[in-house]
Amino acid sequence: MLDPRKLHLLRELAARGTIAAVAEAVMFTPSAVSQQLSALEREAGVPLLERTGRRVSLTPAGHLLVEHAQAVLEQLDRAAAALSAARGGPSGPLRIGAFPTAARVLLPSALAALTAGHPGLEPMVAEIDPADVSAALRAGELDVALVHDYDFVPPVTDAAVGTEPLFAEPVYLTGRRSLAEARDDAWITGKPGTLCHLMTIRACQAAGFEPRVRHHVDDFDTVLAFAAAGQGVALVPHLAATAPPAGVTLTPLPLSRRTLAAFRRGHGGHPGVRAAIAAFRTAFRAAAADLPPAR
């Protein structure tokens, strides 16, 4: 019989690409991961990996098994969620990931409601970039997370991760009335590799120019402070701009940032995850009552 723990390692190899990355994610040594995968090959009775020097790739049989492994691991999560529901109300640790704006603006009230309504729960929050959430969910480091995506930046899909839309918010341009007016300005963006940075670059490209980036800043409070100091223009989502510094003008653009709850497929029915999502929705309604519904 195939061992689900070994199937998890094979799925992580397919997602991460190297045994070293899998070992780091699951806190094993690379040799231990290799041994477990070799044992899985023996259990499967067919080669699952192709080894060329230090490089490892999946065979067609390996890719096929990953598809089935996803279904098996998802069903095991469903079984765990059902057993948790049978034990009664949500209880125990609940590991929540959130991007900084959500952690600052929305989570305090959501956590207060969550612990008041479910005193047996122990929420544990970690700030995380949305780009890192899928890996953290697959590895079991998080139970549920708040993530976002932008227009011009297609969401990254992961067969192991499910999402529920929560709400959408407009994106503002600081200091100018349109992107065309900001063509020759210095720009403040997130660090390269972040969704915020990519959204800014692509929005400017769609307007017909490449932005001249002067500052790379991820914290939107700092972005707004830099804008107030005349250090450039920026694109800032609504929740990050509810109290802009004096002198900063905000022009809404036909751009949106969408916030979603993310969880492992099969784990979305867990009582703790459902309670957290309900608390998120309540907090979002209070903080963003004037915003359009999620789409």
From TrEMBL:
Classification via CDD domains: HTH_ARSR (cd00090), PBP2_LTTR_like_6 (cd08423)
HTH lysR-type domain residues: 2-59
Signal peptide: none
Pfam (any one): HTH_1
Gene3D superfamilies per record: Periplasmic binding protein-like II (3.40.190.10), Winged helix-like DNA-binding domain superfamily/Winged helix DNA-binding domain (1.10.10.10)
SUPFAM superfamilies per record: Periplasmic binding protein-like II, Winged helix' DNA-binding domain
Keywords associated with the record: DNA-binding, Transcription, Transcription regulation
Family: Belongs to the LysR transcriptional regulatory family.
Protein name per the record: LysR family transcriptional regulator
UniProt organism field: Actinomadura luzonensis
Taxon lineage: Bacteria, Bacillati, Actinomycetota, Actinomycetes, Streptosporangiales
